[in-house]
Amino acid sequence: MNRKDRRDEIIELQNQLIRARTQKNLLRVDDDLWGVRAPVLPEKTETTPAEPPKTDEKAKTPEQEHPGLRWDPPAFKLPKFEQSTDELMRLIRESAESLTQMTDELNAKNQKGTGALPDIPLKDQPVLNSQVKKEEAPAPETPQEEPPENIEDLKKELHGYIGLDLIKQEVDSLINYVTIMQRRRDAGLPTPDMSLHMVFSGNPGTGKTMIARLMSRIYRSLGILSKGHLVETDRSGLVAGYVGQTAIKTREVIDKAKGGVLFIDEAYALTNRGGGQDFGQEAVDTLLKNMEDMRDDLIVIVAGYTELMEQFVNSNPGLKSRFNHFMEFPDYTVDELMGIFDMRCEKSGYRLKDDEAKEALRQRLIKASEDLSAFGNARGVRNLFERALSRQADRLAGYEEITKEDLEALTAEDIRE
To answer: DSSP H helical segments within 35-77, as ranges?
Structure first.
């Protein structure tokens, strides 16, 4: 007998056992409800009527006392079985032992099996509710912080910028100061409290935001900041329109910048509005408190026009005492602006076609230098470059054939106003 036939035999024997037990249970319930019933005798073939059973005349059935309750219980007709319950159990045990032996032999041949019957895949097995385990949500991956950059690489990047000679000197001096103070601390020598908050002043487009981003990375490299990121904001990001909301809004920005640099552009707008309903001073007060509380892991850099930033720092004794590093960003020279334009061309795959184009660019920048605050310095060069690309596209649109050299070249016509 093969394995499949043996399984079918076991299933049939189990069904018979279930039917036998069901018969016993039904008979037991029937006896409990209606009393023990007399065995059913085979029908007589004689014509003589059977004598009625003698009954106790004094005893009355519930139906005699209550005629309305008269009801005959149904007679259960159950199938006959060839084997008794004990015999069925014996056959099931023997068959199960035989099938278990067959499965063990298969296991010995490196075929998977764990019992008398073949395994059911876990996903197909029925599971009780009490056994169900809720799948735990995978823990969110914690972003790994990048290691601090090498300070020498950052200094090399600093000195690769066009212009900003005075700023480069001041940043180098600040790096040296912080490094020596750390050496003194490591040697067990006393060190003064370092206030590294800074004021950047100068016209728009002179590189203040660019240097602020670099300073955040430098401070991270020197171990001053834990993260070294930059959060940029202005008055609109700090001041709310209702009483009590400005402090909350400012604190949220500060918490976001913790571990890095908070860069506030046009910071003078916080104090020079005036009027009874201005909440800029509330933002300043909140800022000053947190600059002191988080001085070990927060650097604040405020920026704006030179004269207005002087007024801002002098408007509050707390501001003047906390900002003691001032950097003045000068306007770019015409040659430096030319270098910035050439750098943009090189990075974008363009070039000035000839000397005529270079001279056209120089004349435009000389005119712009008469009012660099309005032109925007490096920002103005970027706008000029983008307008030149637009004019080149309009010019090339009329060509029947366009070469690679045409796509790369910017002519005097593209540069002129």
So the answer is: 62-65
Greatest Cα pair distance, the chain, in angstroms, is 143
Distances (CA, A) of 165 to 105, 153, 178, 211, 298: 86, 18, 20, 12, 27
Which helix (H) or strand (E) covers residue 26, if one does?
A: helix 3-34
Beta bridge partners of 233: 264
Band (pLDDT 50/70/90 cuts) for residue 302 is very high
Taking only the tens place, the pLDDT of each residue in 215-261 is 999 999 999 999 999 999 999 999 988 878 999 999 999 999 999 99
Query: Class of 334-415 per CATH?
Result: mainly alpha
Q: What architecture is the 151-329 domain classified under in CATH?
A: 3-Layer(aba) Sandwich (3.40)
**How many other CB atoms sit within 10 Å of the CB of residue 68?**
6
Of the candidates 343, 335, 351, which has an alpha carbon nearest to the alpha carbon of residue 382?
343
Q: What is the DSSP letter of 59?
A: -
Q: Please report how the helices 165-186 and 208-221 are oriented relative to each other, as an axis angle in degrees rounded to 10.
A: 20
DSSP letter, residue 260 = S
* Structural element, H or E, at residue 304: strand 299-304
DSSP H/E element including 233: strand 230-233
pTM: 0.63
Burial, 289: exposed, middle or buried (Cβ in 10 Å; 0-12, 13-18, 19+)?
middle
Q: What residues pair up with 320 in beta bridges, in sequence order?
A: none
Q: Which of 77-81, 320-324, 386-390 has the lowest mean pLDDT?
A: 77-81
The string of DSSP letters for 388-414 reads: HHHHHHHHHTT-SS--HHHHHEE-HHH
Burial 376-413 (b: 16+ CB within 10 A, else e): bbbebbeebbeebeeebeeeeeeeeeeeeeeeebbbbe
**Domain extents in the chain:** 1-26+81-113, 151-329, 334-415
**308 Cβ contact list (under 8 Å, min separation 6):** 268, 272
